[in-house]
């Protein structure tokens, strides 16, 4: 439920304070209204013209050049707007109240929306009314649920309600009560009915004279209430044992009749359904008594159970979850004689017509959006077609449609049924029914019962006994509450029948359910808007509270404000009008609610003003809420007279005008209230003016109609409180006088003191309103609202305003009054055009902006748009003289002279001329001297603030005016800094060099210079050689400026357009290394700055560029030097200029690469060894000083950087050695030479170059780790001593040793890999010959052989170590330990990796094995040929015996062949192709006359082997079996 909109106003702070004190009342926060101001903007004008000055929209602010100037110099083009725009901003009130509250099981939706949740976390407050008024039927409860009643009748099992209330019991009795709870009949005593088990279903005929009962044993009895002693009709069930010999249809003995109903008005026509999933229609013949009548039973749903002898496939379990025949409405329908019955099974909704023959009319499957694996439940209910009380004009809407609501689990669907009757000419054609699902609703849980409470209201009961009230049209939940305390009777009626469906649940099948819900349908009934509940301990009746009950409950609770708000929502139709019993028709609903709402408002006013509040703040907040709901209700009813009389009088008498006016304000601003009585308007003006809220007051007055205003009173108050917007509005709208407000503002301008600060000048703001007023009037708009005037009024207003404003002398106003309107306060002589001069002297810039907008109006077109005395708008104007644009400009030229006005004022006039001349060339004609004067004046602008506007104006002017000698104006443009104008002049004069210089001088568009160079130097431009040389000279001369803009773009542009200038420009940039670097980078590596591409462009570059680029790269990007030089080809780079820079910057890796590429391998290694020695010295120095240094963090970082450098340069050394080894690989030595080389005496002089390189590298890295280890040991000892003292900060020595060991390991690994001789093909072949007799899985490959170079290098290294730094055996031993200790870690890593791989491989193999164990499931249970049952239930026990024998035989074969690998029997993989028969045949019996083995294919077709072979299933060539169906 939503309330109608509630208005309030105020700041957010006030709203929060009020809401905190009155937390129970919903509040609406609204932003404050914008401040009142007439501000110019840059929006397009109302006349639809575009902005002619797009670059001048940024306002500026600087000190005035003239002390009397009211404002600073402004951008030329502004659009004047007032406080009130034609499309105002959003109202400062919300469109709907924020009635939000948490949803609770204990509260209805209506109460949540009316009452806000308490902030302290208390329980959700309850609505003062009961959504459903429940009444316990005490007399019925006492008779049925008492101990005597239970003993005599049994416990109640089902309930049905019509004109009487019938209860079925577990002992077979039917108890009939009237609405006075009087037991009218006890049906069943002394009859066979009490012997047929519990009553499981009840039905009452359409005329309420007959009741029918279905029993748990399958019997059906009907009873006339007037003669309850014996049954009117008895329909016995069929004997289960003799079903095959049955001659008629009927329920089976023992199947409980769960659903029962009468068809139409007949007592002898019934439909029924049982728990076995079968439904029948019963039609009895007329006769004298139950015995003489015969009953014809027809099966309409379900199938009889299979006998024990049947070989038919077992059927899917089913039951009838819900069942109902269509009841009769209050209007005749074609369906009345069809006997429509709806049945809901777990799988289908079926609607059957039973008369004259049983025929299915509609089927619907279960919706796909039913929650998977949810509780299985089903229910349905009909609502017949009825005659509408208030039909619309369309005759088709006089009768409603028949509707069926049905639910599967949590999905509710409404189905419309429409009957199409055949025309009289086709009487034999049956009635056609059209079924259309209209809407769907999903609950959070399964729905177990549903009933129509009225034509448009549904009651929905869920499995947790929660009742929802839904509106049919929108399926909107209007109320919800718990019925757990009612203990509704429910029973498990379906789980026994549907147990196979639940037990065989497939988790991957979303269509299956996890549990069957209990049945509630027999306990929840609705009749004529009342709900009846059968509980375990009582019977209750419930009625939905209507709208009057809810309003009365709120009034009695003392909450008048909520009551008025709720009544307003009922009136408007926002609330749940259908649920509370209000008609849908607006007129009828308004008639019902309006009188009560007015009475409630009157009573609330009396109560509220008589009530005493603890403080004024609380009283004001309460009255503000009262005013809001009163305004909402009365404006909804259009009762404005009541609002401004009774309601306002009550607030005025209570001295509470403030809440009334603040509530009224947003309605006025939204134009919902446009007429206010004069006495209320006077109080409104006084209140807002005294509260210093004149801006908001003016907005309100300007939105009110002047028809009901007291003009003298309002104008006097507006002048008193300086409300000139409102004054202008009243004069122009009420009287049509546009000149009087203008004269009033001119009087203000004369009083403005320009020496006072603008913010303190009380007249300045009002005086400046003259410009938007003039702009609006000259464009035919109402000031300040902005709406357009009608043509006649607009013409008259413009004519009067132009005549007065551009009058050459002082005028009398009003005409004939004898009072001249003067412009001078000192009584001096009046100037020519006095009023125009006064405004220009006040603010020339604003006047020109206003006039720029006025020029867009067609009124100034003069006679050019007049045809036969008729203007373009079609209204006759006679011979009235109207001003033109030419006339106005001529006047301004005569007034705005340097003798009368300052240059700051004249410059705006020049801008005005320059902008409007191109727009109206046919209306404005000026001589060349005037245009030249304008052009010169624009170039001599007084301040840089308006420079851009002046330049744009010059561009406009030059588009229409061609000076005789444009070149003579170039110095003028250069002094003014008009670069765009100069570009245009130079381009038209083909002065390309000067054009390029102008681009370089233009700081606002620097990037465009490269486009200019490309354009000028392109071959198709056609420049002569002299012009090209001049342009190139400028490029070289201004090279520094070009590079400062973008050095990379400069290089790219010159390479494309003038490659011959690259050297000159690079020389010109000699003093700026940074620009040189970016310049060369764009030439050498064009893609490096933007991406990771490695494309080089070095082929067509001048000499020395690469060397200079590498030198600069050493300073600006040293980390990239090595990568760059590695991409260069031999000869691209000269070493002599580069090596000093590389060494100076420490880029040794690049130097090594360059020297190695040029063949200086030995020198490269020496340089690398020296650098590693330098790094070693630095590292040992840092480690040695680590104990004393106070800056631990910097030391740690420096050590980490040194270790990274050492690791990098060791890798560079390995790369150098590996490259040399590959390049010097010669013919292999003989075995004798290799042995002599390996075990003989080796000196360093015997080593070749690559071996010497490896020796130097190994010697360097080993010495590095040895020396570092010594220093680390000393540091660890010092740290141990310091730890005793308490100093714990130290560097990570373990990391240092680990890193260096890793370098040693990498070096030896690379040496071993480089000197390993791979096995040859001949060796592999010979090995395979010797191992061919061994098992294939135990074959081992031959290992690579070591090259003697490794041993030679190692022996030389040991010899050098003995003679240099390890003279003793202990030292040598430690060095070797350091060398080979690094390999321990690698071995551990490899072993861990192997363990991980083994584990992962085992998991995959295990998963594959489990998948193979799952096997295949046959598609059916019978052979595809003989159709005999071969598998599954009913196949016989011989299949199991045969399978056991086959398994024993298979196990025995496995034991015998355990040493042999699996053959093709059971070890084949299961392919997905249907032609593969990969399942071993299973013998069924050894006898020849039996079908024998079964064959199952991957396509899941099942065959007897003999049947398959006889049907052509043998594979080609006897290679197996094929599926005959798939092939």
- Averaging pLDDT over every residue, what do you get? 78
What is the first-to-last residue Cα distance?
67 Å
* Overall morphology: flat
- Could you tell me the CATH topology label of one domain: Lipocalin
Which percent range describes the beta-strand content?
5-15%
CATH architecture of one domain: Beta Barrel
Low-confidence sequence ranges: 1-73, 86-125, 864-880, 1319-1346, 1461-1489
Radius of gyration, taken over Cα atoms and rounded to an integer in Å: 52 Å
Number of H/I helices? 46
Number of strands: 36
Biggest sheet details: 4 strands, antiparallel
The helix fraction, in percent, is 40-55%
Strand order of the largest sheet: 3-32-31-30
What is the structural class?
A: alpha+beta
Question: Class of one domain, according to the CATH hierarchy?
Answer: Mainly Beta
Quickly list its features.
1527 residues; alpha+beta; Methylamine Dehydrogenase, Chain H; Lipocalin; four-stranded antiparallel beta sheet; 46 helices; 42% helix; 12% strand; flat; disordered N terminus
Can you give a write-up of this model?
The strands form 11 sheets. The protein has a 4-stranded antiparallel beta sheet. Strands 4-5-6-7 form a 4-stranded antiparallel beta sheet, with no helix packed on it. It is flat, with a radius of gyration of 52 Å. Among the domains are: about 130-305, Methylamine Dehydrogenase, Chain H; about 340-530 and about 540-545, Lipocalin (Beta Barrel), CATH 2.40.128; about 735-880, no CATH class; about 1200-1320 and about 1345-1390, no CATH class; about 1440-1520, no CATH class. It starts with 11 loop residues before the first helix and ends in a 17-residue tail after the last helix. The protein is built from 46 helices and 36 strands. It is α+β, with helices and mostly antiparallel strands. Mean pLDDT is about 80; it is low at about 1-75, about 85-125, about 865-880, about 1320-1345 and about 1460-1490.
């Amino acid at each position: 439920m939503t309330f109608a909109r509630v208005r309030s106003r105020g700041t957010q702070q006030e709203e929060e304070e009020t809401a905190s004190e009155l937390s129970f009342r919903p509040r609406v926060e609204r932003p404050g209204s914008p401040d009142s101001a007439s501000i110019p903007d840059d929006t397009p004008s109302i006349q639809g013209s575009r902005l002619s000055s797009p670059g001048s929209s940024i306002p500026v602010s600087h000190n005035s050049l003239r002390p009397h100037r009211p404002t600073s110099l402004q951008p030329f083009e502004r659009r004047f707007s007032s406080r009130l725009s034609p499309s105002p901003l959003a109202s400062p009130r919300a469109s709907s109240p924020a009635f939000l509250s948490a949803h609770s099981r204990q509260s209805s939706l209506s109460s949540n929306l009316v009452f806000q949740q308490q902030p302290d976390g208390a329980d959700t407050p309850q609505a003062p009314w009961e959504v459903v008024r429940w009444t316990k039927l005490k007399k019925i409860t006492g008779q049925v649920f008492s101990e005597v009643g239970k003993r005599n009748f049994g416990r109640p099992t089902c309930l049905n309600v019509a004109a009487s209330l019938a209860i079925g019991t577990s002992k077979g009795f039917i108890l009939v009560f009237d609405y006075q709870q009087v037991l009218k009949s006890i049906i069943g005593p002394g009859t066979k009915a009490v012997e047929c088990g519990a009553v499981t279903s009840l039905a009452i005929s359409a005329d309420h004279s007959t009741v029918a009962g279905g029993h748990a044993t399958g019997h059906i009895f009907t009873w006339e209430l007037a003669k309850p002693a014996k049954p009117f009709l008895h329909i016995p069930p069929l004997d289960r044992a003799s079903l095959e010999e049955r001659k008629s249809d009927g329920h089976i003995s023992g199947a409980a009749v769960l659903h029962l109903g009468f068809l139409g008005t007949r007592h002898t026509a019934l439909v029924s359904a049982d728990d076995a999933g079968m439904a029948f229609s019963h039609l009895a013949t007329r006769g004298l008594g139950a015995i003489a009548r015969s009953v014809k039973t027809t099966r309409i749903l379900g199938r009889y159970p299979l006998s024990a002898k049947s070989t038919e496939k077992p059927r899917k379990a089913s039951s009838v979850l819900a069942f109902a025949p269509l009841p009769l409405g209050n209007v005749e329908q074609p369906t009345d004689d069809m006997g429509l019955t709806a049945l809901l099974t777990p799988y289908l909704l079926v609607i059957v017509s039973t008369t004259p023959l049983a025929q299915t009319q509609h089927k619907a499957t279960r919706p796909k959006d039913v929650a998977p694996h949810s509780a299985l439940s089903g229910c349905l209910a009909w609502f017949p077609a009825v005659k509408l009380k208030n039909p619309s004009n369309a005759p088709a809407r006089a009768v409603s449609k028949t509707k069926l609501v049905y639910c599967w689990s949590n999905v509710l669907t409404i189905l419309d049924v429409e009957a199409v009757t055949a025309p009289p000419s086709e009487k034999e054609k049956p009635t056609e029914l059209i079924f259309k699902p209209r809407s769907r609703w999903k609950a959070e849980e399964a729905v177990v019962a549903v009933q129509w409470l009225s034509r448009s209201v549904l009651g929905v009961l869920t499995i947790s006994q929660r009742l929802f009230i839904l509106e049919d049209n929108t399926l909107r939940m209007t109320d919800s509450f718990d019925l757990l305390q009612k203990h509704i009777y429910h029973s498990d009626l379906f789980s026994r029948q549907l147990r196979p469906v639940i037990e065989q649940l497939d988790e991957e099948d979303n269509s299956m359910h996890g549990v069957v819900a209990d049945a509630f349908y027999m306990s929840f009934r609705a009749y004529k808007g009342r709900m009846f509940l059968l509980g375990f301990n009582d019977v209750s009746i419930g009625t939905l509270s209507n709208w009057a009950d809810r309003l009365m409950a709120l009034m009695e609770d003392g909450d008048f404000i909520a009551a008025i708000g709720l009544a307003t929502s009922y009136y408007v139709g926002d609330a749940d009008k259908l649920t509370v019993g209000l008609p849908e028709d607006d007129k009828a609903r308004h008639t019902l609610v309006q009188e009560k709402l007015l009475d409630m408002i009157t009573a609330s006013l009396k109560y509220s003003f008589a009530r005493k509040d603890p403080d004024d703040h609380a009283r004001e907040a309460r009255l503000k809420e009262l005013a809001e709901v009163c305004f909402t209700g009365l404006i909804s009813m259009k009762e404005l007279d009541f609002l401004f009389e009774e309601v306002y009088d009550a607030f005025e008498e209570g001295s509470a005008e403030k809440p009334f006016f603040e509530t009224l304000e947003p309605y006025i601003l939204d134009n919902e209230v446009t007429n206010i009585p004069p006495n209320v308007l006077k109080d409104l003006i006084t209140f807002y003016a005294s509260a210093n809220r004149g801006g908001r007051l003016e907005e309100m007055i300007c939105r009110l109609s002047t028809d009901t205003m007291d003009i003298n009173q309002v104008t006097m108050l507006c002048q008193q409180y300086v409300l000139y917007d409102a004054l202008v509005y009243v004069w122009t709208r009420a009287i049509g006088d546009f000149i009087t407000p203008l004269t009033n503002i001119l009087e203000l301008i004369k009083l403005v003191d320009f020496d006072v600060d603008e913010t303190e000048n009380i007249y300045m703001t009002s005086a400046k309103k003259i410009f938007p007023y003039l702009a609006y009037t000259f464009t035919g708009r109402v000031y300040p609202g902005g709406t357009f005037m009608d043509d006649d009024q607009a013409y008259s207003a413009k004519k009067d305003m132009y005549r007065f404003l551009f009058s050459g002398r002082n005028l009398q106003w009003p005409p004939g009054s004898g009072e001249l309107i003067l412009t001078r306060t000192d009584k001096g002589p009046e100037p020519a055009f006095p009023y125009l001069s006064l405004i220009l002297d006040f603010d020339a810039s604003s006047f020109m902006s206003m006039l720029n907008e006025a020029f867009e109006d067609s009124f100034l077109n003069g006679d050019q748009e007049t045809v036969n005395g008729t203007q373009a708008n079609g209204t006759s104007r006679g011979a009235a003289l109207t001003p033109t644009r030419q006339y106005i400009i001529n006047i301004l030229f005569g007034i705005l002279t340097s003798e009368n006005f300052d240059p700051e004022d004249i410059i705006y006039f020049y801008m005005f001329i320059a902008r409007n001349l191109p727009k109206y060339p046919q209306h404005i004609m000026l001589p060349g001297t005037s245009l030249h004067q304008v052009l010169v004046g624009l170039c001599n602008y007084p301040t840089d603030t308006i420079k851009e506007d002046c330049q744009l104006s010059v561009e406009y002017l030059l588009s229409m005016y061609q000076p005789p000698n444009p070149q003579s104006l170039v110095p003028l443009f250069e002094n003014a800094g008009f670069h765009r104008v100069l570009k245009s002049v130079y381009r038209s004069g083909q002065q390309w060099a000067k054009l390029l210089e102008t681009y370089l001088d233009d700081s606002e568009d620097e990037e465009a210079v490269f486009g200019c160079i490309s354009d000028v130097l392109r071959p198709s431009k056609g420049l002569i050689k002299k012009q090209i040389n001049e342009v190139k000279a400028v490029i070289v001369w201004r090279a520094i400026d070009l590079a400062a803009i973008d050095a990379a773009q400069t290089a790219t542009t010159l390479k494309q357009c003038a490659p011959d200038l690259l050297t000159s420009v690079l020389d010109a940039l000699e003093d700026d290394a940074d620009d040189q670097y970016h310049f060369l980078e764009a030439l050498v590596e064009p893609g490096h700055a933007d991406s990771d591409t490695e494309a080089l462009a070095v082929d067509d570059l001048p000499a020395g560029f690469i060397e200079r680029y590498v030198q600069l790269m050493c300073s600006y990007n040293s980390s990239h030097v090595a990568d760059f030089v590695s991409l260069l080809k031999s000869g691209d780079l000269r070493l002599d200029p580069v090596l000093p820079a590389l060494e100076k910057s420490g880029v040794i890796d690049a130097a090594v690469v360059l020297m190695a590429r040029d063949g200086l391998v030995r020198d490269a290694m020496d340089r690398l060894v020296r650098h590693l020695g330098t790094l070693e010295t630095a590292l040992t120095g840092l480690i040695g000083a680590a104990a004393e240094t106070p800056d631990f963090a910097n030391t740690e970082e420096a050590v980490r950087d040194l270790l990274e450098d050492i690791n990098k340069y060791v890798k560079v050394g390995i790369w150098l050695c590996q490259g040399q080894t590959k390049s010097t690989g010669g013919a292999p030595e003989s075995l004798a030479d290799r042995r002599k080389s390996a075990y003989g005496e080796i000196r360093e002089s015997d080593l070749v170059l690559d071996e010497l390189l490896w020796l130097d590298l190994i010697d360097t890295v080993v010495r590095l780790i040895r020396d570092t280890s010594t220093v680390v040991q000393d540091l660890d000892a010092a740290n141990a001593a310091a730890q005793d003292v308490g100093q714990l900060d130290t560097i990570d020595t373990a990391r240092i040793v680990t890193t260096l060991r890793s370098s040693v390991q990498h070096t030896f690994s690379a040496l071993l890999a480089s000197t390993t001789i791979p096995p040859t093909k001949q060796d592999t072949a010979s090995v395979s010959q010797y191992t061919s007799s061994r098992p294939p899985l135990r074959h081992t490959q031959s290992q690579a052989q070591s090259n003697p170079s490794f041993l030679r290098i190692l022996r030389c290294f040991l010899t050098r170590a003995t003679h240099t730094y390890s003279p003793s055996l202990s030292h040598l031993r430690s060095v070797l330990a350091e060398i080979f200790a690094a390999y321990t870690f690698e071995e551990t890593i490899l072993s861990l990796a192997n363990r991980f791989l083994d584990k992962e491989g085992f998991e995959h193999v295990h998963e594959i094995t489990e998948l193979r164990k799952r096997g295949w499931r046959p598609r059916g249970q019978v052979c595809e040929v003989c159709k005999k049952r071969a598998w599954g239930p009913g196949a016989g026990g011989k299949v199991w015996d045969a399978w056991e024998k086959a398994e024993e035989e298979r196990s025995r074969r496995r034991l015998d062949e355990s040493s042999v690998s699996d053959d093709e029997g059971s070890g084949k993989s299961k392919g997905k192709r249907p032609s593969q028969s990969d399942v071993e045949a299973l013998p069924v019996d050894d006898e020849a006359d039996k079908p024998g083995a079964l064959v199952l294919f991957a396509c899941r077709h099942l065959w007897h082997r003999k049947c398959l072979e006889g049907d052509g299933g043998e594979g080609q060539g006897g290679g197996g079996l094929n599926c005959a169906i798939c092939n």
